[in-house]
Amino acid sequence: MKVTVDFEECLKDSPRFRATIEEVEGDVCELESKLDKLVKLCIGMIDAGKAYNAANKQFVNGIRELAQQSPKDEVMESSLTKFAESLQEMINYHTILFDQAQRSIKSQLQTFMKEDLRKFKESKKQFDKVSEEKEAALAKNAQAPRNKQHEVEEATNILTATRKCFRHIVLDYVLQINVLQSKRRSEILKSMLSFMYAHLTFFHQGYDLFSELQPLMKQLGGQLDQLVVDAAKEKRDMEMKHSTIQQKAALQDFSNDDTKLEYNVDADNGIAMEGYLFKRASNAFKTWNRRWFSIQNNQLVYQKKFKDQPTVVVEDLRLCTVKHCEDIERRFCFEVVSPTKSCMMQADSEKLRQAWIKAVQNSIATAFREKGEDAEKLDRKSSTSTGSLDSSSEPKEKSLKGDSALQQVQAIPGNGSCCDCGLADPRWASINLGITLCIECSGIHRSLGVHFSKVRSLTLDTWEPELLKLMCELGNGVINQIYEARQEELGVRKPQPGDPRQEIEAYIRAKYVDKKFVRMPTVAEQRSKVIALSKQEKRLSSSSEHLPPRPPPPTPNLRPVSNISAAAGWEEARRESLFCPDELDSLFSYFDNSSKLRSIKSADSGIQNSADGSREMLAATPSTNSLCEAEPSESTLPVFLPKSDSTVFSEPKEYSPGLQLFWASYARSLPDMAEALAHGAEVNWVNTEDDNKTPLIMAVQGGSLVTCEFLLQNSANVNQQDIHGRGPLHHATILGHTGQVCLFLKRGASQNAVDVDEKSPLSIAVEAANADIVTLLRLAKMNEEMREAEGPYGQTGDETYQDIFRDFSQMASNDPDKLNRFQPYDAQKL
């Protein structure tokens, strides 16, 4: 025990002792003040902690109530319940922590203050008293006269007794001081150490608790991306449904037809007709009440609220009849009569009354015919011949979705695992790179931005055939050979499944954004690559894409040729159109009736034409200036004649990735195109030495639909023109590539653009007598005008128009021979 006041010094009662005593007393006074403050702060902390626990407990109860509110969502209910239990356990740990703070800080320090400091104060009082007595005794002894012996003896005796008492008291006081000085350290440190151990236990318990919870949290975190995708898909579906309903409602308002939203067929629950009707009660007052009626399961029933048990009006429709009621004051009334009773009902309009009467009659007939089976659906949507572009009986092929797309893409070597981390069974893809990804890497790719990577689900999204073929043409192996060419050379480790997200994200950014692992070619290597591509013969893609014969790439001259065989060739091409005359009539009539456009101004010719003029355009030979002229003479039939039969490669002034992309697009080599983009090629690069043509125009001349799709997915400009003012749509029309025309129209290619000869794609298709392309261009034009006329309700496009273009896309990808009937005429044969 360290002695702060010397015992020997206290007996001397020296000034040094007095100074030490004064210093110790001041220190103890300050200690008492700070301990008192600390105890009060501890009490405030404990009170605040209890309030926090109470509020936290209410919050946890709110989480439990939210979990109970989602009984049908197993993931949400179980996760929230587990989280609430964990948070409740943390509240219990907090309670224990605050109890320990009360015991270790408040109780122990208060005990120290009440006992040890109190003893010190009592000893100080005795010391102060005896010190005063000693001083008085010394003064009296000094004042005693020498000649008065009895006073001297008395003063001496008092001084002796007082000194003896002082020595006893001062020794006790010094002992108390030294004990207090030593004990203050142990008591304070013991109290704080106990409090810190309570904190240590609290955090250990919390760590153990959340360590057990971590697998669930990690699993839920992995599911969140999928949940976000599902929510986005549901939102998109709801928005599409909302737009469709708005469009139907607008058409209903326009035609004053109030039966479309009331009259429906639902085969799943057997409802043939349902809607609101007024029903006359059978009471004495004959009141009319509005009820929800339905014809289902061979019965006529109604209900007031959804949860109410339906009231049966007619048990068996085979036993009843329905008739108009014109002898009462109310309008639009009809009566259903059965052998036991009759029911008077009122519709909201005459059309609705007729619909209900017809529905009841048809249900009666169906009940008799099927002998009590469920009634057939009454409001079947008529399917016109516009939905089929092929006169054969083959069913239409729809866009691939789900497992079909997943199986085809994963069948490509290397696509069975994630391109970036190697996780097996990837369900996501980057469509502009042509690679497959796991869900974690797909989230990182989304964060890069669509100018680097466009992510799509292989199981949830719908895949167009040309996009699916693009995925099968490239793949993880091809792209990794390009983007990871220098990975091992640089000594960079490729991420593995389960690595921290930060490491995977850093690797992906270095790979695709910074392109650190791409091996940049030398000028000689680039020159060799460009020359090899320019001399490359016709090449088929690895996905067995059946491509039409590649037409000559130079820009064709447009000049009329006088020859009977030309007219005969045009008639033959017209007759081979995918559309039969009846289908064309139905198509254009459909667009006329849907859009309510009775007069359409042709943007290509500047002459006003009716919809019938569009049909005449395909039934008669048009001239170069009008789409609805009379039959042309043999001397005025124009054809397209190419300038030459082959591409001439001239040595460029300099070699660049853009030039490689230019010739790779013509050679249909997607790996070389992807390599050029990785080397920094501009997707809209312009070849100033070759009529300002772009890679997309060369892809058109190469004849491959997939190369066009690849460039468009990588942000190629679908309307960029060459030196002759012709864009990709012009070139595809000139070369008769129907599939490419369909693709460009879907991607927003402008039909109104004209070349230096003031010719639009439509006028070129008319002169070339390509009935399929003419039809596509006219339908796209009519759909655009219909959307403009309908305002905001026409933004999603017409369903029939979309079906037609979907079918053309299927044929262009899966059966291109059907679209490859048009060939440019040879001048030497005419």
TrEMBL record:
InterPro entries: ACAP1/2/3-like, AH/BAR_dom_sf, Ankyrin_rpt, Ankyrin_rpt-contain_sf, ARFGAP/RecO, ArfGAP_dom, ArfGAP_dom_sf, BAR_dom. GTPase-activating protein for the ADP ribosylation factor family. Residues 375-405, 534-561 are annotated as: Disordered. Keywords: ANK repeat, Cell membrane, Coiled coil, Endosome, GTPase activation, Membrane, Metal-binding, Repeat, Zinc, Zinc-finger. One of its GO terms (cellular component) is plasma membrane. It comes from Megalops atlanticus (Tarpon). It is found in: Cell membrane; Endosome membrane. CDD domains: BAR_ACAP2, PH_ACAP. The lineage of its organism: Eukaryota, Metazoa, Chordata, Craniata, Vertebrata. Residues 383-392 have a biased composition (Low complexity). This is Arf-GAP with coiled-coil, ANK repeat and PH domain-containing protein. Residues 403-529 form the Arf-GAP domain. It is a peripheral membrane protein. PH domain binds phospholipids including phosphatidic acid, phosphatidylinositol 3-phosphate, phosphatidylinositol 3,5-bisphosphate (PIP2) and phosphatidylinositol 3,4,5-trisphosphate (PIP3). May mediate protein binding to PIP2 or PIP3 containing membranes. The BAR domain mediates homodimerization, it can neither bind membrane nor impart curvature, but instead requires the neighboring PH domain to achieve these functions. ANK repeats lie at residues 691-723, 724-756. GAP activity stimulated by phosphatidylinositol 4,5-bisphosphate (PIP2) and phosphatidic acid. Residues 270-365 form the PH domain. GO terms for molecular function: GTPase activator activity; zinc ion binding. The keyword Acyltransferase does not apply.
